[in-house]
Amino acid sequence: MKRERLFLLIAMFAGASIFTACDDNDDNGGETPPMNSSCYILNQGNFGENNASLQIYDKDSGTASSALCESDIFTTANGELLGDVAQDMLWTNGKLFVTVSNSQKLEILNENGKRITKHTYSAEGAQPRNIATDGKKVYVTNYDGYVYVYNAASGDSITRIYSGSYPEGISCNNGYLIVNNSNQGGYGGGEASIAIIDTKSGTLIKSIKDNVCNPYGESVICNDDVYIVDSGNYDNIPSTIYRVDTDSLKVTKIGTASLLSAYENHIFYTDASFTYSTMSYNNTPLYKMDVTTGEKAELVAAEKMKDIYSLDVDPATGDVYVGYAQYGILGTMRIYDGTTGEQKATFDVGYYPTGARFNN
């Protein structure tokens, strides 16, 4: 659920940088049961500073575990830091799958953050990115051009499938993987496409290239269709939501946005994309759209969306978790009612919260 390469370029412009692999160890931390909660917060950390962190948020009491990497649940459980630029997290089969991009690893953890196993990547250009599952297998995109496949129950590696340049967002739907292959907005090379991969055969069956620019960001399933974010070129081509019909493989433009999440038959989205020509971020309200009717409404005003970095919806309640980030300071997570837009809670998180995940 991010954009550390873009942020690094911005930070270089501003004169400041913004954002080590770890070894297995047998430290017996992580034996304390987690708080009565099903919400995990993954904090990306500052690029190059090895300060990613993992938290648990107790929805009943409204309290969160430590956001500091020195005392987050991963470090407490394993006696080492999570790593450099945590990218994505997924809960399935009683396990947390966590990608740490610059540390070139996939961590598989128990509910307390204790390591079950770890996979590292050594291929040229390898940086694990985003995760999807069909319940039986877990699929991890990687900047080396492949989707890596793991057994969801055991965590064992199975195979890898070629996808395209800089694979990013990924969804698994109707027997297909839909993968965002980025070209880094034209700044990183490669050829932008939406890859359609048959999960049964494990082969790339189609690369959609027409009318796509830079499919970089989120990929979510709503009402049996896949909705993705195409981040544009950070200039005159805006960040856009597309719907991918996995029956017809037709791609349809839905609206302009950079962050996207889904709940039942609704998508939630806002535009916080960066524009190089103005060296500024867009700032729009948080919208809620019924995908069956196309009707949309403003849920949260634009002024409350400033500095937004992540957007997720609790599938059990419909509450919207919005992560906020500013350079050099710890972030904040706010929870909004998904029906009224009323703010229900706020709590401190780590540097650059990349998202909230739920084990409902």
Helix-strand layout with pairing:
Elements: H1 4-14, E1 39-43, E2 53-58, E3 63-64, H2 73-78, E4 86-92, E5 95-100, E6 105-109, E7 115-120, E8 128-133, E9 137-142, E10 146-151, E11 157-162, E12 167-173, E13 176-181, E14 193-198, E15 203-208, E16 215-222, E17 225-230, E18 240-244, E19 251-256, E20 259-263, E21 266-270, E22 274-275, E23 280-281, E24 286-290, E25 296-300, E26 308-313, E27 320-326, E28 329-336, E29 343-348, E30 353-358
Antiparallel strand pairs: 1-2, 1-30, 2-3, 4-5, 5-6, 6-7, 8-9, 9-10, 10-11, 12-13, 13-14, 14-15, 16-17, 17-18, 18-19, 20-21, 21-24, 22-23, 24-25, 26-27, 27-28, 28-29
Describe the structure.
It contains two helices and 30 strands. With 360 residues, it is mostly beta strands. Strands 3-2-1-30 form a four-stranded antiparallel sheet. A four-stranded antiparallel sheet has the order 4-5-6-7. A four-stranded antiparallel sheet has the order 8-9-10-11, with no helix packed on it. Strand 14 (193-198) and strand 15 form a beta hairpin. The longest helix is centred in the first third of the chain and has 11 residues, at 4-14. Mean pLDDT is 89; it is low at 7-36.
